[in-house]
Amino acid sequence: MYQLIDGKAISTALKEELKGKVDALKAQGVEPCLAVILVGEDPASTVYVNNKKKACEFIGIKSLSYELPESTTQDELLALIDKLNADDGVNGILVQLPLPKHIDEDAVIQAISPKKDVDGFHPQSVGALCIGQKGFVSCTPAGIIELLKRSNVEIEGKECVIIGRSNIVGKPMSLLMLRENATVTVCHSRTKNLKEVTKRADILIVAIGKPKMITAEYVKEGAVVIDVGIHRLEGKKLCGDVDFDTVAEHTSMITPVPGGVGPMTIAMLMKNCVDSVTM
């Protein structure tokens, strides 16, 4: 019988811990502050931003919200980032992605001070992760490590297969698993004999962006399966990249969608924001 990895419960426990840390900081006269910038009115982005505001409120982090029109120019956005970089009262800056097509996302990410890069996307943050130095780590991969550790999953010495090589999940995930002494394989759209590779995995992390693509024949019996994907099907039902109904019974542990990785992403953003005070 498999065990469900409850991201909601684990993220709540983490947020309670952060609440205590924020209370202690405030007692010393320090108030963590996160500035969130949203450009345009993308419905999913609006939901994410609102969830981040709620998490800030729960933990006690001051939240500044900048909701800019779709017509905002790149120069206007960069000017706002410069202003927030210079503001000593702001610890973290988050620009909600995706941005409108007329704005260069890379230029925006690079404009954020690495000391306030709570999303962990700045090249300096990524470089620090690569060479094992201190820095912010992308929230979703960091959240997956927390899920595994708090579920007592042994990582060291285990074979980990990651499906997906994005800058946001796949690549940083591979570096974090290496840091935990796993043996890591990264698969992608050009990987040959994918099922043979994934069936070796003690820990299978799926971030491929295709609904229910991973079925039982991809999974080693007793593996731990982490599903990063989230998709809305007809009838508004949510699913992940893993076909949960056929895969779960072959695993030892598995994350659900929703309620698995998703809540951890926001919790780790909050952790990065609290950590930014001492960065």
How would you describe what is shown here?
By secondary structure, the protein is α/β, with parallel strands linked by helices. The chain has helices spanning 7-27, 43-59, 74-86, 105-111, 123-130, 139-150, 170-179, 194-198, 244-247, 261-275; strands at 3-4, 33-39, 62-68, 92-95, 159-163, 183-187, 203-206, 223-227, 231-232, 238-239, 251-254. The chain has two domains: 29-113, Rossmann fold (3-Layer(aba) Sandwich); 139-261, 3-Layer(aba) Sandwich (Rossmann fold), CATH 3.40.50.720. It is 40% helix and 17% strand. The strands form three sheets. It has a six-stranded parallel β-sheet. A three-stranded parallel β-sheet has the order 3-2-4, with helices on both faces. It starts with a strand and ends with a helix. 41% of the residues are buried. The model has no long low-confidence stretch (mean pLDDT 96).
Structure summarized in a few sentences:
It is built from 10 helices and 11 strands. With 279 residues, it is α/β, with parallel strands linked by helices.
Question: Which key terms come to mind for this protein?
Answer:
2 domains, 11 strands, six-stranded parallel beta sheet, Rossmann fold, alpha/beta, 279 residues
Please, how many helices?
A: 10
* Terminus-to-terminus distance: 43 Å
Give the helices and strands as they follow along the chain: EHEHEHEHHHEHEHEEEEHEH
CATH class of the largest domain: Alpha Beta
Number-wise, the strands total 11
Task: Furnish the topology, listing elements before pairings.
Elements: E1 3-4, H1 7-27, E2 33-39, H2 43-59, E3 62-68, H3 74-86, E4 92-95, H4 105-111, H5 123-130, H6 139-150, E5 159-163, H7 170-179, E6 183-187, H8 194-198, E7 203-206, E8 223-227, E9 231-232, E10 238-239, H9 244-247, E11 251-254, H10 261-275
Parallel strand pairs: 1-11, 2-3, 2-4, 5-6, 5-7, 7-8, 8-11
Antiparallel strand pairs: 9-10
Helix pairs in contact: 1-10, 2-10, 6-7, 6-10
